[in-house]
Design a protein that fits this description.
mainly alpha
Length: about 90
């Protein structure tokens, strides 16, 4: 988590609202950085994120969150496929 905090500070300084007044893109990026830090540093939120990341689904994380009960119930049987090489 320390590395996440350090990386957040480096990136957040670039998009900090006081340094980018009236810049909507910078404001949006700063908000995304805050959301990412919050997700990655909170054990429960991180577990949900990791589950999405490892699921193999192709839709966005926010879509996963907004539909997670439905998606997880309908995908409980699914397994991420991996290619095995034959020797």
């Amino acid at each position: 988590m320390k590395q996440i905090s350090v990386e957040f500070k480096v990136r957040a300084l670039k998009y900090y609202p006081d340094k980018n007044s009236n810049d909507k893109k910078a404001e949006e990026m700063f908000q995304k950085l805050n959301e990412a830090k919050e997700t990655l540093c909170d054990p429960e939120k991180r577990a949900i994120y990791d589950k999405w990341k490892n699921s193999g689904v192709t839709f966005r994380y926010k879509t996963w969150l907004s539909n997670k009960e439905y998606v997880q119930q309908s995908m409980h049987w699914a397994q991420k496929t991996t290619k095995h090489t034959q020797h």
